[in-house]
Specification:
alpha+beta, OB fold (Dihydrolipoamide Acetyltransferase, E2P), six-stranded antiparallel barrel, four-stranded antiparallel beta sheet
């Protein structure tokens, strides 16, 4: 009896191996429906502030739906607003300085310099006459050497003061140099950039959602002191929703970018999702351990990305799915992957 059971078991195994070889021979591979196994890939984004500060409020919690541009959290912006006011005051001061150098000196300052010039000229002429008189008297030995030397010193001093007044008048009449004006303009431009940067930092105290989605995690609470870039919320984006699947090398010619596909899940096998192949990797790789496939784990496959066109909340991150190209065979009402003599969980 035991010998019969052993013989029957061996025959059954041989029949199974023979059926598998027949089913996967090249002639049959192209006739059977192509089924690709993969997982749902939903993009997530970690949201944080570009500036540091104290977290004032978080407006959304885990599981809350959000829309693109919706405010999710705020920092205390008082310190940054004070920076804006300081930058604005600095800009106004530099603008006034630019107007001053562009307009040149006031007429009153030039008139004052001319009056000083005339005064110095009168003093110089008087010192010159006194020096000539003392020089003449000295030549006749009427005055002492000291008196002649004092008159000469006063004469040279008056001459120097007259030249100084003349140079001052020339500077006031010429106005500021082109280099001074260029520097003043550069200072204004730098102050304008500083003000714009301060305003941008105030805007960065408001955290907005980049796209429609659902709050996946809430990492911070109001009152926390945050560093730049610290994650406050993680949002699972509504779009795009992709399926990351894998195709073996013999089946690579049966699929191409742009091909329409149906996507089946275990939760609703009778109502597939629809999409199209968006990308096929040019490089082969070993099948990932988490991919549900009836092929050997060590087979080389090509990764592809399927863009889901009618995704809804039924698709979750990492959910296993079966991808079937449209027109690749009749499926009837059977679940993907189920054939005669094959359980629905085959390949898991």
């Amino acid at each position: 009896m035991k010998k019969k059971i052993l013989v029957f078991t061996i025959l059954l195994l041989m029949a199974g191996v023979g059926f598998w070889l027949w089913r996967n021979r090249p002639g049959n591979r192209t006739n059977r429906p192509l089924e690709l196994r993969g997982n749902v890939d939903i993009r997530e984004v970690n949201l944080g502030f570009r500036v540091s500060g104290r977290l004032a409020e978080v407006l959304r919690d885990e599981g809350d739906p959000v829309k693109a541009g919706e405010v999710l959290a705020r920092l205390d912006d008082e310190p940054l607003r004070r920076e804006v006011e300081q930058a604005r005051g600095q800009l106004e001061a530099l603008r006034a300085r630019l107007q001053l150098v562009e307009a040149g000196n006031r007429p009153q300052e030039i008139a004052q310099a001319r009056a000083v010039m005339r005064e110095r000229e009168v003093a110089f002429e008087n010192a010159e006459r006194l020096y000539k008189r003392q020089q003449e008297l000295y030549s006749r030995r009427v005055v002492a050497v000291q008196e002649r030397d004092d008159a000469e010193a006063n004469y040279h001093e008056a001459e120097a003061r007259r030249k100084s007044a003349a140079e001052t008048l020339n500077l006031l009449e010429a106005g500021f140099r082109a280099e001074d004006i260029a520097q003043a303009r550069a200072d204004v431009s730098r102050a304008e950039a500083a003000l714009a940067g301060a305003k941008l930092r105030v805007e960065d105290t408001v955290l907005k959602s980049p796209s429609d989605g659902v709050v996946f995690t809430r990492a911070q609470e109001a009152g926390a002191i945050l560093q730049t870039g610290a994650t406050v919320l993680t949002v699972s984006l509504e779009k795009p929703v992709w399926v990351r699947a894998f195709v073996s090398e013999p089946d690579l010619g049966r699929i191409h970018p742009g091909m329409k596909v149906e996507i089946f899940t275990d939760s609703r096998p009778e109502k597939p999702y629809h999409g199209q192949v968006g990308y096929i990797s040019p490089r082969a790789e070993f099948t990932p351990r988490n991919v549900e496939t009836p092929e050997l784990r060590t087979s080389l496959v090509y990764r592809l990305r399927v863009v889901v066109e009618d995704a809804d909340s039924g698709l979750r991150q990492g959910m296993p799915v079966t991808v079937v190209p449209t027109g690749e065979g009749s499926r009837g009402a059977e679940r993907p992957g189920s054939t005669a003599g094959e359980s629905p969980a085959a390949g898991k």
